[in-house]
Amino acid sequence: MPELPEVEGVVQALKPKMEGRTIQQVQLSEVIRFSFGEGKQCIVKQAEPDAFEMSLTQMTITKIERRAKYIFFHMRKENVPYVLVSHLGMTGAWFVVNSPEEINEAKFQKHIHATFKMADGGFLIYSDIRRFGELRFLEKIEDHTPLTKMAPEPFDEIACDYFIAQSKLPKYENKSVKEVIMDGQVISGCGNIYATEALFAQKIHPARKMNRISEKRKRALFEAIVTVLRQSINAGGSTISDYRNINGEAGSMQNRLQMYGKKMCPVCDTATSQMTIGGRTSVFCPNCQH
DNA sequence: GCGAGTTACCGGTGGC
DNA sequence: TGCCACCGGTAACTC
Length: 290
Prior knowledge:
Elements: H1 4-18, E1 23-28, H2 30-37, H3 49-56, E2 60-67, E3 70-77, E4 80-87, E5 92-97, H4 106-110, E6 112-118, E7 123-128, E8 134-138, H5 145-148, H6 159-167, H7 170-173, H8 177-181, H9 192-201, H10 215-234, E9 273-277, E10 280-284
Antiparallel strand pairs: 1-6, 2-3, 3-4, 4-8, 5-7, 6-7, 9-10
This protein binds a DNA duplex through loops.
């Protein structure tokens, strides 16, 4: 499950290997083609498979950057800029290899969905087991509304004030804190794992209503989120089930998690509780978090 | 036009 | 061994 720190790791690894290179040929999987024929948008969004392949052919990757949990591949063809937006969903992974056979994990090998053959040799490959990821080819970011509504990067100095302001809006003030901090229009890139960790660190119950938290506590919570995201980036991300970096390696943050996926509270040894908030599983310590 | 709520997208995993 | 419910980030759709 790649979250912001995992995506950051992917981007940092992709940058030196892919920036400046030109795509010679693109090939989408049969699954994508078949799904499109069925009227579905499997991985490739708002484009016909043929048109998507053609659009990216002869495109030069100028810059790769992360925004929330999205990867932006900025590109250029005949001096016109474009961008390929990638989201890894639950199980997406990028690989930079000399040949597709180099992907040695069977389940990633089996679910290769986009193969980019580079003009100077080698391949950039997108694999996605559960196909929750997306590839979206745009002329500019503004062409896709959800991307324009995203909160600032959590490391941006205005991000905390932005969070405070958003949290006071009518549509958020009566919601649970966990739902609000996981909303990309409030804080960007805070998924279930890191929301769970930050709430535990601040001893806040995930179901507590936003308007029952003081501004001081909200600021402390925001800092806790930033801290846990930074820690995880430094640890190479959390490898929960299927995350791999572009070399197929796992991260180590999962070993440092205090609450996500835990049966016992590491502070007071009470059995943890679980409830569904905003449709997502939430783990917390009923003794420590109020 | 906007917001709230619902559905779609999936295969690996683990429990029985 | 085999079946089946469960899981989840985001967009798109409906109301």
